[in-house]
Amino acid sequence: MARMRGVVAGIGVVCCLGLGGVGCARSDALSQEVPVGDPVRVLRGAADALVDAGSSKATTSLEMATGGTRVTIRGEGVYDYRKRLGRLRVLLPRDPAGKVVRRPITELLAPGALFMKNRGAGVPADKWVRVDTGTLSDGNLVTGGATDPFAAAEVLRGTRSATFVERTEVAGAKVRHYRGTADLRHASRDASEANREALGAAAKGFATARVPFDAYLDDEGRIRKLRHRFSFVNGRQDEPVAVASTTLLYDFGVPADVRLPEGEDIYAGRIAAERGHE
To answer: Given its phi and psi angles, is residue 54 left (phi above 0), alpha (psi -120 to 50 degrees) or beta?
Structure first.
């Protein structure tokens, strides 16, 4: 299936000359409500629109619910969609007594790899932990406590069904709200080389490869808000863990200078990956 490079910002030009004010107002109102093109094609091209934009700031939220317990992990940072590099500062939740569990974790997102600092578990404070995202059963959609913004966008390449919901606003930006379902197996086939292996691993590792989502795109086809709902089986229990991942993107074109650590700065010891930093 052909990818759509960018999204057309309008659905046509309506000539109002000679039609009177009422006709013009009605045409303008309709243009605000009608979706631009086929929703499935628009959503499959959303990741390409981010590449065209170059970079942005991002905030993330990962909510996990199991056995009556709900945990929320938040992050914020920048992302370069052309280099596939990002930096997030991830805040872990407080314990039931309100005490901070751990210092914020700095995460560097790169093709095929996740680097974490202040990871804990005996890692020296000045060292980074490197994780190969292709070996993670969730493709790093959950493990890091934040979903890689570009990987989140590329999940939409696997959109199987979608509908236009409404015109609305996100953080002051006018957007079109779409709701649909993506298939991680199809997403991995059409994803960039940087995310192909990771999304393929997620398709096999999650309880289901089908991912319901709500996506909010601006008039340039760029994602402003994206909410995925994942489900995986925790190895310690049979009940699936429900995960809601929300990504907000804004300030497109902002400088995003992300430098990966040198080899001597990476922790050489073995460390187990903790899903979502449970």
So the answer is: left
Structure tokens, 81: 């969609």
- CA-nearest of 186, 193, 191, 227 to 210 is 186
Compute φ and ψ for 220, nearest 5 degrees: -100, 10
How many CB atoms are closer than 10 A to CB 263?
7
* pLDDT at position 98: 55
What tokens appear for 250 in the block? 């804004």
Q: Where are the beta strands (DSSP E) in 12-158?
A: 55-66, 69-80, 85-91, 105-110, 113-117, 128-132
Candidates 205, 254, 250; CA nearest to 231 is 205
Per-residue pLDDT reduced to its tens digit, 153-172 = 999 999 999 999 999 999 99
Q: Contact 104/89 with Cβ under 8 angstroms?
A: yes
d(CA 217, CA 233): 31
Sequence-distant (≥ 6) Cβ neighbours of residue 22 within 8 angstroms = none
% pLDDT > 90, the chain: 43
pTM: 0.78
Judged by phi (left if over 0) then psi (alpha if -120 to 50, else beta), residue 53 lies in alpha
